[in-house]
Design goal:
The complex is a heterodimer of chains A (114) and B (111).
Chain A (H helix, E strand, L loop, with lengths): L3 E4 L2 E4 L5 E7 L5 E8 L3 E10 L2 E4 L6 E7 L2 E6 L8 E8 L9 E2 L3 E5 L1
Parallel strand pairs in A: 2-11
Antiparallel strand pairs in A: 1-3, 3-8, 4-5, 4-9, 5-6, 7-8, 9-10, 9-11
Chain B lengths: L3 E3 L4 E4 L4 E7 L6 E7 L6 E6 L3 E5 L2 E6 L4 E6 L8 E8 L7 E2 L3 E6 L1
Parallel strand pairs in B: 2-11
Antiparallel strand pairs in B: 1-3, 3-8, 4-5, 4-9, 6-7, 7-8, 9-10, 9-11
The chains are: A mainly beta (114), B mainly beta (111).
Chain lengths: 114, 111
């Protein structure tokens, strides 16, 4: 998984609780991304980062926030989890800029919100 | 709006035959194109990237890009049962944006 770890790998939580997912890379890549994958929707971008403390929203960012205080770590926070956020969450990293970017994915976190 | 269309399948192909997977896209500004393979319960893994019109070959895999017709395809020669997976096409408009994915085609290689 190209030096990418995600934690936790599985989590069950209750509606209304905050949840933080962590992505850690050992590749020193500049760009990091959070996606969610749901049946019938495929992979959708939540947020991404193009450097330490530089982040931007993706297609489905409502209800999520992110932080990146170090190159190697990108945190995704569900401020108040809802059942619609039950999903598999993937982190991805890339290094190249411009149109030749290739993204490599972490192992994923399966989140269930009851 | 970036949209990708893939036939969800399942696409069933006999072992040893050529599997052909197709993806059409709507945004003419798309610059980079990718094919990922995803086994059930696993993360997507990159198979091929293609950036210019024409064919790109890597082992048993060939990616084809036609920007005028706005489609990208993946051919898998000498299909093996281990090729059975969901294949995702993805595009990147440019800059630091993330990828936009199709919903994937479920490929089954029958022994």
């Amino acid at each position: 998984d190209a030096g990418i770890t995600q934690s936790p790998r599985h989590k069950v939580t209750e509606t209304g609780t905050p949840v933080t997912l962590r992505c850690h890379q050992t590749e020193n890549h500049r760009y990091m991304y959070w996606y969610r994958q749901d049946p019938g929707h495929g992979l959708r971008l939540i947020h991404y980062s193009y450097g330490v403390k530089d982040t931007d929203k993706g297609e489905v960012s409502d209800g999520y926030s992110v932080s990146r205080s170090k190159t190697e770590d990108f945190l995704l926070t569900l401020e108040s989890a809802t059942s619609s956020q039950t999903s598999v969450y993937f982190c991805a990293i890339s290094d190249a800029q411009g149109g030749t970017d290739t993204q490599y994915f972490g192992p994923g976190t399966r989140l269930t919100v009851l | 709006q970036k949209e990708l269309e893939q036939n969800s399948g399942p696409l069933s192909v006999p072992e040893g035959a050529i599997a052909s997977l197709n993806c059409t896209y709507s945004d003419r500004g798309s610059q980079s194109f990718f094919w990922y393979r995803q086994y059930s319960g696993k993360s997507p893994e990159l198979i091929m990237s293609i950036y210019s019109n024409g064919d790109k070959e890597d082992g048993r895999f060939t990616a084809q890009l036609n920007k005028a017709s706005q489609y990208v395809s993946l051919l898998i020669r000498d299909s093996q049962p281990s090729d059975s997976a969901t294949y995702l096409c993805a595009v990147r408009l440019g800059g630091a944006d993330g990828l936009t994915f199709g919903k994937g085609t479920h490929l089954i290689i029958q022994p």
